[in-house]
Amino acid sequence: MKKVYTCIICPNGCEIEAEIEGTYVLSVKGHTCDKGETYVRQELTAPMRTIATSVRVEGGELPLASVRLTAPVPKEMIFPVMEQIKKLSLKAPVEAGTVILKGVCGLASDVVVTKHIKEFKHI
Amino acid sequence: MERKEAVIIGGGPAGLAAALKLWEKGIRDLLILEREDHLGGILRQCIHDGFGLGRFGKSLSGPEYAQAFIDEIIRNKIPYLTGAAVMGLTKDRQITVITREGVRRYEAKAVILAMGCKERSRGALGIPGERPAGVFTAGTAQAYMNLYNRMPAKEAVILGSGDIGMIMARRLTLEGAHVQAVFELMPHPSGLPRNIIQCLEDYKIPLYLSHTVTEIHGDARLTGVTVAEVDGHRKPIAGTEKRYDCDTLILSAGLIPDNQLSADAGVVLDSRTKGAVVDEHFQTSIPGVFAAGNVLHVHDLVDFVSMEAEALASDAADYIRGANFVPCTVRIRAGEGIGHIVPQKISAERDFRLSLRVRDHYKDCRIVVRQGGQTVASKKMKKAIPAEMIQMNIKAEKLQKEGELEVCVQ
Protein backbone atom coordinates (compact mmCIF):
# COMPACT_ATOMS: atom_id res chain seq x y z
CA MET A 1 0.00 0.00 0.00
CA LYS A 2 1.21 3.51 -0.87
CA LYS A 3 0.97 6.28 1.68
CA VAL A 4 2.15 9.89 1.52
CA TYR A 5 3.72 11.50 4.59
CA THR A 6 4.70 15.09 5.21
CA CYS A 7 7.87 15.01 7.26
CA ILE A 8 7.71 17.33 10.29
CA ILE A 9 11.35 17.01 11.36
CA CYS A 10 12.42 20.26 9.69
CA PRO A 11 10.71 23.15 7.88
CA ASN A 12 11.44 21.65 4.45
CA GLY A 13 8.42 19.44 5.08
CA CYS A 14 9.41 16.80 2.51
CA GLU A 15 6.53 14.90 0.96
CA ILE A 16 7.56 11.29 1.35
CA GLU A 17 5.86 8.53 -0.57
CA ALA A 18 6.11 5.24 1.33
CA GLU A 19 5.32 1.73 0.21
CA ILE A 20 4.10 -0.01 3.33
CA GLU A 21 2.77 -3.37 4.34
CA GLY A 22 1.26 -3.58 7.82
CA THR A 23 3.83 -1.96 10.05
CA TYR A 24 6.72 -2.55 7.62
CA VAL A 25 8.08 0.19 5.41
CA LEU A 26 9.17 -1.47 2.17
CA SER A 27 10.49 1.65 0.46
CA VAL A 28 10.41 5.42 0.71
CA LYS A 29 11.02 8.15 -1.84
CA GLY A 30 10.90 11.93 -1.83
CA HIS A 31 12.91 12.46 1.35
CA THR A 32 16.00 14.66 1.12
CA CYS A 33 17.79 13.29 4.21
CA ASP A 34 17.98 10.13 6.34
CA LYS A 35 15.78 11.68 9.00
CA GLY A 36 12.87 11.47 6.58
CA GLU A 37 13.07 7.70 6.36
CA THR A 38 13.38 7.36 10.15
CA TYR A 39 10.40 9.68 10.53
CA VAL A 40 8.17 7.55 8.29
CA ARG A 41 9.11 4.33 10.15
CA GLN A 42 8.44 5.99 13.50
CA GLU A 43 5.21 7.59 12.30
CA LEU A 44 3.89 4.27 11.05
CA THR A 45 4.54 2.35 14.26
CA ALA A 46 4.61 4.86 17.13
CA PRO A 47 4.30 8.56 16.28
CA MET A 48 6.34 10.84 18.57
CA ARG A 49 5.92 14.54 19.26
CA THR A 50 7.54 17.24 21.35
CA ILE A 51 5.43 19.88 23.03
CA ALA A 52 6.04 23.32 24.43
CA THR A 53 3.92 25.08 27.01
CA SER A 54 4.48 27.25 30.06
CA VAL A 55 4.61 27.03 33.83
CA ARG A 56 3.33 29.48 36.41
CA VAL A 57 6.00 31.65 38.06
CA GLU A 58 5.50 33.41 41.39
CA GLY A 59 7.09 36.80 41.90
CA GLY A 60 8.45 37.07 38.38
CA GLU A 61 8.45 40.02 35.99
CA LEU A 62 6.20 37.76 33.87
CA PRO A 63 3.63 35.32 35.29
CA LEU A 64 4.88 32.45 33.11
CA ALA A 65 8.10 30.69 32.17
CA SER A 66 8.04 28.88 28.84
CA VAL A 67 9.07 25.21 28.91
CA ARG A 68 9.57 22.42 26.41
CA LEU A 69 10.32 18.71 26.40
CA THR A 70 13.92 17.61 25.88
CA ALA A 71 12.85 14.63 23.75
CA PRO A 72 9.71 13.63 21.87
CA VAL A 73 7.06 11.57 23.63
CA PRO A 74 4.44 9.20 22.18
CA LYS A 75 1.66 11.22 20.55
CA GLU A 76 -1.02 9.74 22.79
CA MET A 77 0.93 10.96 25.85
CA ILE A 78 0.67 14.65 24.90
CA PHE A 79 -2.34 15.37 27.12
CA PRO A 80 -1.16 13.28 30.13
CA VAL A 81 2.18 15.17 29.88
CA MET A 82 0.30 18.51 29.76
CA GLU A 83 -1.56 17.50 32.94
CA GLN A 84 1.73 16.81 34.74
CA ILE A 85 3.26 20.10 33.59
CA LYS A 86 0.16 22.03 34.74
CA LYS A 87 0.85 20.89 38.31
CA LEU A 88 4.27 22.54 38.33
CA SER A 89 4.98 26.02 39.59
CA LEU A 90 8.18 27.99 40.05
CA LYS A 91 9.50 30.90 42.08
CA ALA A 92 11.40 33.71 40.37
CA PRO A 93 14.18 34.04 39.43
CA VAL A 94 14.09 31.20 36.91
CA GLU A 95 16.98 30.32 34.59
CA ALA A 96 16.52 29.00 31.06
CA GLY A 97 18.00 25.52 30.80
CA THR A 98 16.81 24.40 34.25
CA VAL A 99 15.23 20.94 34.21
CA ILE A 100 12.14 21.18 36.40
CA LEU A 101 10.76 17.67 35.91
CA LYS A 102 12.84 14.65 34.98
CA GLY A 103 11.21 11.77 33.12
CA VAL A 104 7.75 13.28 32.77
CA CYS A 105 5.05 10.55 33.08
CA GLY A 106 7.84 7.99 33.37
CA LEU A 107 9.01 8.75 29.81
CA ALA A 108 12.55 9.43 28.62
CA SER A 109 11.90 13.15 28.35
CA ASP A 110 12.46 16.05 30.75
CA VAL A 111 10.68 19.37 31.13
CA VAL A 112 13.17 22.21 30.67
CA VAL A 113 12.68 25.95 31.13
CA THR A 114 13.34 27.98 27.96
CA LYS A 115 13.21 31.57 29.23
CA HIS A 116 14.93 33.53 31.99
CA ILE A 117 12.39 35.13 34.31
CA LYS A 118 13.79 37.76 36.66
CA GLU A 119 12.26 38.70 39.97
CA PHE A 120 9.67 41.44 39.77
CA LYS A 121 11.00 44.69 41.21
CA HIS A 122 9.07 47.88 41.75
CA ILE A 123 10.72 50.75 39.94
CA MET B 1 21.93 65.27 19.18
CA GLU B 2 24.28 62.38 19.83
CA ARG B 3 26.28 60.93 16.94
CA LYS B 4 26.58 57.18 16.44
CA GLU B 5 28.19 55.08 13.75
CA ALA B 6 25.22 52.72 13.65
CA VAL B 7 21.76 52.77 15.20
CA ILE B 8 19.67 49.63 14.92
CA ILE B 9 15.92 50.09 15.17
CA GLY B 10 14.47 46.91 16.66
CA GLY B 11 15.94 44.35 19.06
CA GLY B 12 14.37 41.24 17.53
CA PRO B 13 16.22 38.53 15.63
CA ALA B 14 17.20 40.82 12.73
CA GLY B 15 18.42 43.65 14.94
CA LEU B 16 20.37 41.36 17.27
CA ALA B 17 22.11 39.51 14.44
CA ALA B 18 22.96 42.80 12.70
CA ALA B 19 24.37 44.29 15.91
CA LEU B 20 26.54 41.24 16.62
CA LYS B 21 27.92 41.19 13.07
CA LEU B 22 28.67 44.93 13.13
CA TRP B 23 30.48 44.42 16.43
CA GLU B 24 32.47 41.53 15.03
CA LYS B 25 33.43 43.74 12.08
CA GLY B 26 34.84 46.27 14.52
CA ILE B 27 31.98 48.79 14.58
CA ARG B 28 31.79 49.65 18.29
CA ASP B 29 29.92 52.94 18.32
CA LEU B 30 26.50 51.42 17.88
CA LEU B 31 23.18 51.29 19.69
CA ILE B 32 20.16 48.98 19.54
CA LEU B 33 16.79 50.64 20.21
CA GLU B 34 14.00 48.30 21.36
CA ARG B 35 10.53 49.53 22.27
CA GLU B 36 9.62 46.53 24.47
CA ASP B 37 11.14 46.02 27.92
CA HIS B 38 13.23 43.06 26.72
CA LEU B 39 15.32 42.21 23.71
CA GLY B 40 14.20 39.27 21.56
CA GLY B 41 11.23 40.63 19.62
CA ILE B 42 8.39 38.31 18.68
CA LEU B 43 10.50 35.23 19.55
CA ARG B 44 9.75 35.87 23.22
CA GLN B 45 6.18 34.71 22.72
CA CYS B 46 6.95 31.93 20.21
CA ILE B 47 7.44 29.27 22.86
CA HIS B 48 7.01 26.33 20.44
CA ASP B 49 10.12 24.61 19.14
CA GLY B 50 11.43 24.26 15.59
CA PHE B 51 13.69 27.32 15.53
CA GLY B 52 17.40 27.16 14.82
CA LEU B 53 17.63 23.90 12.86
CA GLY B 54 19.50 25.74 10.13
CA ARG B 55 21.71 27.80 12.39
CA PHE B 56 22.31 25.71 15.50
CA GLY B 57 21.53 22.26 14.07
CA LYS B 58 18.97 21.61 16.77
CA SER B 59 15.37 22.46 17.42
CA LEU B 60 15.02 25.34 19.89
CA SER B 61 12.07 27.32 21.20
CA GLY B 62 11.78 30.97 20.21
CA PRO B 63 13.00 32.32 23.58
CA GLU B 64 16.06 30.04 23.46
CA TYR B 65 16.91 31.09 19.91
CA ALA B 66 16.69 34.76 20.94
CA GLN B 67 18.66 34.17 24.14
CA ALA B 68 21.59 32.69 22.20
CA PHE B 69 21.96 36.10 20.52
CA ILE B 70 21.13 38.13 23.65
CA ASP B 71 23.85 36.26 25.60
CA GLU B 72 26.38 37.40 23.00
CA ILE B 73 25.10 40.98 23.11
CA ILE B 74 25.53 41.02 26.89
CA ARG B 75 28.90 39.23 26.86
CA ASN B 76 30.27 41.80 24.39
CA LYS B 77 28.59 44.65 26.28
CA ILE B 78 26.94 45.89 23.08
CA PRO B 79 24.90 48.98 23.98
CA TYR B 80 21.12 48.72 23.82
CA LEU B 81 18.13 50.61 25.16
CA THR B 82 14.85 48.86 25.95
CA GLY B 83 11.56 50.64 26.52
CA ALA B 84 12.79 52.96 23.78
CA ALA B 85 10.25 53.69 21.05
CA VAL B 86 11.54 55.38 17.92
CA MET B 87 9.06 58.09 16.96
CA GLY B 88 10.81 59.60 14.00
CA LEU B 89 13.41 58.94 11.34
CA THR B 90 14.54 61.44 8.73
CA LYS B 91 16.34 61.10 5.43
CA ASP B 92 19.40 62.61 7.13
CA ARG B 93 19.41 59.56 9.41
CA GLN B 94 18.30 61.49 12.47
CA ILE B 95 16.35 59.46 14.97
CA THR B 96 13.96 60.66 17.67
CA VAL B 97 13.33 58.13 20.39
CA ILE B 98 11.18 58.18 23.52
CA THR B 99 12.92 56.54 26.46
CA ARG B 100 12.23 56.28 30.18
CA GLU B 101 14.66 59.19 30.66
CA GLY B 102 12.89 61.35 28.11
CA VAL B 103 13.31 62.19 24.46
CA ARG B 104 16.69 61.47 22.90
CA ARG B 105 18.02 62.28 19.45
CA TYR B 106 20.68 60.48 17.50
CA GLU B 107 22.34 61.02 14.18
CA ALA B 108 23.76 57.82 12.71
CA LYS B 109 26.14 57.15 9.85
CA ALA B 110 24.15 53.99 9.21
CA VAL B 111 20.61 53.22 10.30
CA ILE B 112 19.57 49.57 10.33
CA LEU B 113 15.82 49.06 9.95
CA ALA B 114 14.89 45.89 11.84
CA MET B 115 11.33 46.62 12.99
CA GLY B 116 9.84 43.31 11.87
CA CYS B 117 6.27 42.97 10.70
CA LYS B 118 2.70 43.38 11.90
CA GLU B 119 -0.38 41.23 11.47
CA ARG B 120 -3.25 41.91 9.11
CA SER B 121 -6.09 43.00 11.39
CA ARG B 122 -9.86 42.64 11.18
CA GLY B 123 -10.09 46.19 9.89
CA ALA B 124 -7.61 45.44 7.12
CA LEU B 125 -9.52 42.28 6.19
CA GLY B 126 -12.81 44.18 6.10
CA ILE B 127 -14.99 41.47 7.65
CA PRO B 128 -18.56 42.79 7.97
CA GLY B 129 -20.70 42.41 11.07
CA GLU B 130 -20.84 43.51 14.69
CA ARG B 131 -17.83 44.64 16.68
CA PRO B 132 -17.80 42.43 19.77
CA ALA B 133 -14.82 41.50 21.92
CA GLY B 134 -13.27 38.15 21.08
CA VAL B 135 -11.69 38.88 17.70
CA PHE B 136 -7.90 38.62 18.01
CA THR B 137 -4.99 38.35 15.67
CA ALA B 138 -3.06 35.12 16.26
CA GLY B 139 -0.09 37.05 17.62
CA THR B 140 -2.24 38.90 20.14
CA ALA B 141 -3.77 35.62 21.35
CA GLN B 142 -0.23 34.23 21.53
CA ALA B 143 0.94 37.14 23.69
CA TYR B 144 -2.07 36.72 26.01
CA MET B 145 -1.39 33.02 26.47
CA ASN B 146 2.39 32.80 26.42
CA LEU B 147 3.41 36.05 28.08
CA TYR B 148 0.53 37.21 30.27
CA ASN B 149 -1.15 33.96 31.36
CA ARG B 150 -4.55 34.91 29.96
CA MET B 151 -6.77 32.42 28.17
CA PRO B 152 -8.44 34.19 25.24
CA ALA B 153 -10.88 31.46 24.15
CA LYS B 154 -13.08 28.51 25.06
CA GLU B 155 -14.66 27.88 21.65
CA ALA B 156 -12.53 29.20 18.82
CA VAL B 157 -12.66 29.50 15.07
CA ILE B 158 -9.53 30.45 13.13
CA LEU B 159 -9.55 32.46 9.91
CA GLY B 160 -6.42 32.08 7.82
CA SER B 161 -3.95 29.20 7.71
CA GLY B 162 -0.82 31.20 8.45
CA ASP B 163 1.78 29.47 10.61
CA ILE B 164 0.98 31.46 13.75
CA GLY B 165 -2.73 30.65 13.39
CA MET B 166 -2.01 26.93 13.15
CA ILE B 167 0.43 27.09 16.04
CA MET B 168 -2.24 28.86 18.11
CA ALA B 169 -4.78 26.20 17.15
CA ARG B 170 -2.49 23.65 18.83
CA ARG B 171 -1.66 25.94 21.74
CA LEU B 172 -5.35 26.63 22.49
CA THR B 173 -6.16 22.91 22.29
CA LEU B 174 -3.30 22.00 24.66
CA GLU B 175 -4.65 24.51 27.17
CA GLY B 176 -8.17 23.11 27.05
CA ALA B 177 -9.97 25.26 24.49
CA HIS B 178 -11.88 23.73 21.60
CA VAL B 179 -10.82 24.83 18.14
CA GLN B 180 -13.65 24.06 15.72
CA ALA B 181 -11.89 24.68 12.42
CA VAL B 182 -9.41 26.70 10.43
CA PHE B 183 -10.81 28.46 7.35
CA GLU B 184 -8.56 29.58 4.51
CA LEU B 185 -9.68 31.92 1.74
CA MET B 186 -7.16 30.60 -0.76
CA PRO B 187 -7.39 27.16 -2.39
CA HIS B 188 -4.06 26.25 -0.69
CA PRO B 189 -2.79 26.57 2.88
CA SER B 190 -0.65 29.63 3.55
CA GLY B 191 1.51 28.08 6.30
CA LEU B 192 4.17 25.37 6.22
CA PRO B 193 3.10 21.75 5.52
CA ARG B 194 4.67 20.51 8.78
CA ASN B 195 2.37 22.77 10.78
CA ILE B 196 -0.72 21.34 9.06
CA ILE B 197 0.38 17.92 10.35
CA GLN B 198 1.67 18.73 13.82
CA CYS B 199 -0.74 21.55 14.72
CA LEU B 200 -3.99 20.62 12.98
CA GLU B 201 -4.12 16.94 11.97
CA ASP B 202 -2.55 15.77 15.25
CA TYR B 203 -5.44 17.43 17.12
CA LYS B 204 -8.12 16.58 14.56
CA ILE B 205 -8.76 20.24 13.74
CA PRO B 206 -10.28 20.45 10.26
CA LEU B 207 -8.85 22.84 7.65
CA TYR B 208 -11.33 24.16 5.07
CA LEU B 209 -9.74 25.72 1.99
CA SER B 210 -11.57 28.29 -0.18
CA HIS B 211 -13.70 29.39 2.77
CA THR B 212 -13.97 32.71 4.55
CA VAL B 213 -15.79 34.42 7.40
CA THR B 214 -18.55 36.60 5.95
CA GLU B 215 -20.09 37.92 9.13
CA ILE B 216 -19.23 38.44 12.78
CA HIS B 217 -22.03 38.10 15.36
CA GLY B 218 -22.25 39.21 18.96
CA ASP B 219 -22.88 42.19 21.16
CA ALA B 220 -20.45 42.52 24.06
CA ARG B 221 -18.68 39.23 23.23
CA LEU B 222 -18.50 37.25 20.02
CA THR B 223 -21.29 34.67 19.79
CA GLY B 224 -20.53 33.23 16.37
CA VAL B 225 -19.36 33.71 12.83
CA THR B 226 -20.89 33.00 9.45
CA VAL B 227 -18.60 31.13 7.10
CA ALA B 228 -19.08 30.67 3.36
CA GLU B 229 -17.32 28.88 0.57
CA VAL B 230 -15.67 31.14 -2.02
CA ASP B 231 -15.40 30.83 -5.78
CA GLY B 232 -12.33 31.14 -8.00
CA HIS B 233 -12.42 34.92 -7.60
CA ARG B 234 -12.49 34.58 -3.80
CA LYS B 235 -16.11 35.79 -3.68
CA PRO B 236 -18.48 34.06 -1.21
CA ILE B 237 -20.88 31.66 -2.92
CA ALA B 238 -24.52 32.41 -2.03
CA GLY B 239 -26.25 29.54 -0.29
CA THR B 240 -23.07 28.03 1.23
CA GLU B 241 -23.24 30.12 4.42
CA LYS B 242 -23.00 28.22 7.68
CA ARG B 243 -23.01 29.59 11.21
CA TYR B 244 -20.41 28.50 13.76
CA ASP B 245 -21.12 29.35 17.38
CA CYS B 246 -17.91 30.45 19.10
CA ASP B 247 -16.61 33.00 21.60
CA THR B 248 -13.36 33.75 19.80
CA LEU B 249 -12.21 34.37 16.25
CA ILE B 250 -8.45 34.18 15.69
CA LEU B 251 -7.09 35.89 12.59
CA SER B 252 -4.00 34.54 10.87
CA ALA B 253 -4.35 36.15 7.48
CA GLY B 254 -1.00 37.55 6.61
CA LEU B 255 1.91 39.58 7.88
CA ILE B 256 2.93 42.99 6.60
CA PRO B 257 6.38 44.54 7.07
CA ASP B 258 6.08 47.41 9.56
CA ASN B 259 7.40 50.35 7.59
CA GLN B 260 5.70 53.39 9.09
CA LEU B 261 9.07 54.86 10.13
CA SER B 262 10.69 54.01 6.80
CA ALA B 263 7.84 55.66 4.90
CA ASP B 264 8.07 58.79 7.11
CA ALA B 265 11.75 59.03 6.25
CA GLY B 266 10.95 58.78 2.54
CA VAL B 267 12.32 55.28 1.97
CA VAL B 268 10.93 53.93 -1.31
CA LEU B 269 8.77 50.85 -0.66
CA ASP B 270 8.01 47.88 -2.91
CA SER B 271 4.27 47.32 -3.41
CA ARG B 272 4.88 43.55 -3.59
CA THR B 273 6.99 42.98 -0.46
CA LYS B 274 5.56 46.01 1.41
CA GLY B 275 9.17 46.48 2.50
CA ALA B 276 11.89 48.80 1.26
CA VAL B 277 13.31 48.54 -2.23
CA VAL B 278 16.90 47.46 -1.55
CA ASP B 279 20.07 46.77 -3.46
CA GLU B 280 22.47 43.85 -3.01
CA HIS B 281 23.86 45.54 0.14
CA PHE B 282 20.34 45.72 1.66
CA GLN B 283 20.63 49.49 1.31
CA THR B 284 17.35 51.33 0.78
CA SER B 285 16.70 54.33 -1.47
CA ILE B 286 18.23 56.50 1.29
CA PRO B 287 22.03 56.12 1.40
CA GLY B 288 23.11 54.73 4.76
CA VAL B 289 19.68 53.32 5.62
CA PHE B 290 19.64 49.52 5.44
CA ALA B 291 16.84 46.99 6.03
CA ALA B 292 16.73 43.28 6.77
CA GLY B 293 14.45 40.65 8.27
CA ASN B 294 10.67 40.84 8.34
CA VAL B 295 10.65 44.61 7.87
CA LEU B 296 12.14 43.99 4.42
CA HIS B 297 10.04 40.98 3.40
CA VAL B 298 8.18 38.43 5.51
CA HIS B 299 10.27 35.32 6.17
CA ASP B 300 9.03 31.85 7.06
CA LEU B 301 12.14 30.92 9.09
CA VAL B 302 14.00 32.98 11.66
CA ASP B 303 17.28 31.33 10.64
CA PHE B 304 17.01 33.17 7.32
CA VAL B 305 16.25 36.43 9.13
CA SER B 306 19.49 36.13 11.10
CA MET B 307 21.49 35.29 7.98
CA GLU B 308 20.04 38.20 6.05
CA ALA B 309 20.77 40.64 8.89
CA GLU B 310 24.36 39.41 9.07
CA ALA B 311 24.82 39.89 5.33
CA LEU B 312 23.43 43.41 5.73
CA ALA B 313 25.75 44.18 8.64
CA SER B 314 28.87 43.09 6.75
CA ASP B 315 28.11 45.61 4.03
CA ALA B 316 26.88 48.28 6.45
CA ALA B 317 30.25 48.01 8.26
CA ASP B 318 32.01 48.70 4.95
CA TYR B 319 29.68 51.63 4.35
CA ILE B 320 30.45 53.11 7.78
CA ARG B 321 34.17 52.83 7.01
CA GLY B 322 33.60 54.88 3.87
CA ALA B 323 33.52 52.20 1.19
CA ASN B 324 32.12 53.34 -2.13
CA PHE B 325 29.59 50.84 -3.38
CA VAL B 326 29.36 50.27 -7.11
CA PRO B 327 26.05 51.88 -8.20
CA CYS B 328 23.24 49.33 -8.35
CA THR B 329 21.44 50.20 -11.56
CA VAL B 330 20.40 46.75 -12.80
CA ARG B 331 16.78 46.13 -11.84
CA ILE B 332 15.33 42.73 -11.01
CA ARG B 333 11.71 42.12 -11.93
CA ALA B 334 9.28 39.52 -10.58
CA GLY B 335 7.89 37.83 -13.70
CA GLU B 336 5.40 35.02 -14.35
CA GLY B 337 4.49 33.08 -11.23
CA ILE B 338 6.71 35.09 -8.86
CA GLY B 339 5.16 36.95 -5.92
CA HIS B 340 8.12 39.09 -4.99
CA ILE B 341 11.90 39.27 -5.07
CA VAL B 342 14.64 40.78 -2.88
CA PRO B 343 16.91 42.60 -3.71
CA GLN B 344 15.22 44.67 -6.39
CA LYS B 345 18.42 46.16 -7.83
CA ILE B 346 22.03 45.06 -8.15
CA SER B 347 25.40 46.16 -9.51
CA ALA B 348 25.81 42.94 -11.53
CA GLU B 349 29.44 43.07 -10.41
CA ARG B 350 29.33 40.79 -7.42
CA ASP B 351 27.63 37.53 -6.44
CA PHE B 352 24.39 37.97 -4.54
CA ARG B 353 21.63 35.96 -2.96
CA LEU B 354 18.16 36.31 -4.44
CA SER B 355 15.18 35.69 -2.12
CA LEU B 356 11.75 35.13 -3.61
CA ARG B 357 8.32 33.66 -3.17
CA VAL B 358 6.16 32.05 -5.80
CA ARG B 359 2.50 33.08 -6.24
CA ASP B 360 0.95 29.63 -6.56
CA HIS B 361 1.58 25.94 -5.92
CA TYR B 362 3.93 24.35 -8.45
CA LYS B 363 5.26 20.80 -8.82
CA ASP B 364 8.43 19.83 -10.70
CA CYS B 365 9.13 23.36 -11.77
CA ARG B 366 12.16 25.52 -12.38
CA ILE B 367 12.84 29.03 -11.08
CA VAL B 368 14.63 30.81 -13.91
CA VAL B 369 16.53 34.11 -13.88
CA ARG B 370 16.99 35.68 -17.31
CA GLN B 371 18.81 38.71 -18.61
CA GLY B 372 18.35 39.84 -22.19
CA GLY B 373 16.92 36.47 -23.23
CA GLN B 374 19.81 34.52 -21.65
CA THR B 375 19.28 32.25 -18.64
CA VAL B 376 21.74 33.38 -15.96
CA ALA B 377 20.57 31.08 -13.17
CA SER B 378 18.00 28.40 -12.62
CA LYS B 379 16.89 26.21 -9.77
CA LYS B 380 14.98 22.96 -10.08
CA MET B 381 12.24 22.51 -7.51
CA LYS B 382 10.28 19.36 -6.70
CA LYS B 383 7.64 21.65 -5.28
CA ALA B 384 7.40 25.40 -4.86
CA ILE B 385 4.72 26.88 -2.61
CA PRO B 386 3.94 30.45 -1.54
CA ALA B 387 4.47 29.47 2.14
CA GLU B 388 8.17 28.84 1.57
CA MET B 389 10.74 31.48 0.77
CA ILE B 390 13.16 30.32 -1.93
CA GLN B 391 16.77 31.48 -2.12
CA MET B 392 19.21 31.30 -5.01
CA ASN B 393 22.85 32.31 -5.22
CA ILE B 394 23.55 34.23 -8.40
CA LYS B 395 27.07 34.47 -9.80
CA ALA B 396 28.25 37.84 -11.11
CA GLU B 397 30.30 36.17 -13.86
CA LYS B 398 27.03 35.16 -15.54
CA LEU B 399 25.68 38.71 -15.58
CA GLN B 400 25.87 41.57 -18.07
CA LYS B 401 26.47 45.06 -16.61
CA GLU B 402 23.30 46.32 -18.22
CA GLY B 403 19.82 45.02 -18.80
CA GLU B 404 17.01 44.08 -16.44
CA LEU B 405 16.87 40.64 -14.80
CA GLU B 406 13.59 38.79 -14.87
CA VAL B 407 12.69 35.96 -12.51
CA CYS B 408 9.92 33.52 -13.42
CA VAL B 409 8.58 30.03 -12.78
CA GLN B 410 8.70 27.47 -15.61
Notable characteristics:
heterodimer; A: 123 residues; 2 domains; 36% strand; B: 410 residues; FAD/NAD(P)-binding domain; Immunoglobulin-like; 3 domains; seven-stranded mixed β-sheet; five-stranded parallel β-sheet
Question: What is the secondary structure topology, with strand pairs?
Answer:
The complex is a heterodimer of chains A (123) and B (410).
Chain A: E1 2-6, E2 15-21, E3 24-29, H1 34-45, E4 48-49, E5 52-58, E6 64-69, E7 73-74, H2 78-86, E8 89-91, E9 99-101, E10 111-113
Parallel strand pairs in A: 5-8
Antiparallel strand pairs in A: 1-2, 2-3, 4-7, 5-6, 6-10, 9-10
Chain B: E1 2-9, H1 13-24, E2 30-33, E3 49-51, E4 60-61, H2 62-75, E5 80-81, E6 85-89, E7 94-99, E8 102-113, E9 117-119, H3 122-125, E10 135-137, H4 138-146, E11 155-159, H5 163-174, E12 178-184, H6 193-200, E13 207-209, E14 211-218, E15 222-229, E16 242-245, E17 248-251, E18 255-257, H7 260-265, E19 289-291, H8 302-320, E20 330-334, E21 338-342, E22 345-346, E23 352-358, E24 362-371, E25 374-384, E26 390-394, E27 405-409
Parallel strand pairs in B: 1-2, 1-8, 2-5, 8-19, 10-17, 11-12, 11-17, 12-13, 20-27
Antiparallel strand pairs in B: 3-4, 6-7, 7-8, 9-18, 14-15, 15-16, 20-22, 21-23, 23-26, 24-25, 24-27
Helix pairs in contact in B: 1-2, 1-8, 4-5, 5-6
Largest sheet of chain A: 5 strands, mixed
What is the CATH C level class of the largest domain in chain B, in words? Alpha Beta
Apparent shape of chain A: elongated
The CATH class of the largest domain in chain A, by name, is Alpha Beta
Average pLDDT figure of chain B: 96
- What is the CATH H-level superfamily of the largest domain in chain B? FAD/NAD(P)-binding domain
Global morphology of chain B: globular
CATH superfamily grouping of the largest domain in chain A: CPE0013-like
Widest sheet of chain A: strand order?
Answer: 8-5-6-10-9
What name does the CATH topology of the largest domain in chain B carry? Answer: FAD/NAD(P)-binding domain
- The quaternary organization reads as heterodimer
Helical coverage of chain A, percent range: 10-25%
- The radius of gyration of chain B is 22 Å
CATH fold topology of the largest domain in chain A = CPE0013-like fold
Order of helices and strands of chain A: EEEHEEEEHEEE
The total of beta strands of chain B comes to: 27
Based on the structure given, which CATH architecture of the largest domain in chain A is correct?
Answer: Roll
Q: Note the gap between the termini of chain B.
A: 53 Å
Task: Return residue spans of chain A where pLDDT drops below 50 for at least 5 consecutive residues.
Answer: none
